[in-house]
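pls ignore typos typing on phone
calcium ion + seq
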Amino acid sequence: MHDRDNVAIVANDGGLPPGTVCPGALVLKDQVPQGHKVALVDLKSGDAVLRYGVPIGRALRDIDAGRWVHERLLEMPDARGLDGLPMASAKALAPPPLEGHSFQGYRNADGSVGTRNLLAITTTVQCVAGVVAHAVDRIRRELLPLYPYVDDVVGLEHGYGCGVAIDAPDAVIPIRTLRHISLNPNFGGELMVVSLGCEKLQPQRLLPPGTIAIGADAKEPQLDVVCLQDEAHVGFGSMIDSILRQARPHLERLNARRRETVPASELVVGVQCGGSDAFSGVTANPAVGFMSDLLVRAGATVMFSETTEVRDAVEQLTSRAATPEIAQAVVREMAWYDAYLQRGRVDRSANTTPGNKAGGLANIVEKAMGSIIKSGTAPIGAVLSPGEKLARGQRGLVYAATPASDFICGTLQLAAGMNLHVFTTGRGTPYGLAECPVLKVATRTDLARRWHDLMDVDAGRIASGEASIEEIGWALFHRLLAVASGERTWAERHRLHNALVLFNPAPVT
Ligand code: CA
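k done
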């Protein structure tokens, strides 16, 4: 991966046996599984093991050239402190703008653009989830056939609202996350809320006046709420009737919308990886990084996230920040997360999973170096705290701070205003979101073949030499425009989607 590296990974399906002669006359001395590291030179105990040109650990004993370098032979370095970082020091490259690319999207009254035309039903509390799920099912079967231009109806179910310390300082995170998801561009500015009545998170607290006049019809600033405890409701059937009745005007307005040609700059793409392996940083993430650069050149917005997976690359982030203030915001988010983990008496090393390790990733440093490549090379133009929404008109590369947990990250990126999601995976996950299309990219051809009806793009062709990073990056860019225009991803075709999972660092009572 880098001229300085003293390890490399075995790309071959099934790994390689001892005795295999590798390019450069290196002879393997161990069976090395696919994706795992092999020493290129003799390493002494205490030597830095270099991958991506950076130390991913120190050798715990002498390791001969040709030996398997697994995680038990490595001591993980401490995280770099947050003092004395290079602030906005990188020379900003200004590649030529990319013009002439467009997609067919739904233009919203507030200027944002949707890639889908969905009726979303916001909920204030988990108590109403069963009733809303029932109503959503009936709307889908009985009403959607009458409104053919509406893609689907989505209940925004979550675990918050009751039994929470709603005035705790950190409660702002789950509350603004829910508020901002309700305003996601894929919902056309239509706001409809189902509340129980007695919950901590009252509808007016979730969506205070001033946040609701963004709708397609600003003449109706009244928040549309169905309250289940309302005395007018006699029995379950009448609650369902209310929800179906109140859904109709929203469906009418959504159904009147048509896709129109909009520039590629209206894309707001969230990039994420999950179920990573050693190929993530070799194939899929570099291709996504190339795609990110193309999107930024086209004037679009790209969000990358996953704090624990970029913490070990903090120098890269602060130096790539467009201004010292943005670099300072990166430090603020990293420091907040360090303290959050410390409160739970863990650190960033809690991130790697058994699957990551089986896939060849020795530790979080190695994982981070392969993860951050997704962000490409553009300067970082803004930083969002968890649950914050992009400022109107904010374009380019944005760091949206989130945990690395797939669903929590996806949920927070939806709140930030994502209208398209790109997700890379090496071990494989059937991940999807009901609120936004998710384009899944396999890091290995073996996975793309086995999960042929789950993986949208095979980036493993980079490892086998059949395609270049640039070719897969361009293919992703074009595929994104097609998906944004209505082409369905595998997850959409199977209706696979994960729950919204809120990040709630505040206490529950
Ligand atoms: Ca993730």
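The pocket of calcium ion is lined by residues 272-274, 306, 404, 406, 409 (CB under 6 Å). The first strand starts at residue 7 and ends at 9. more later
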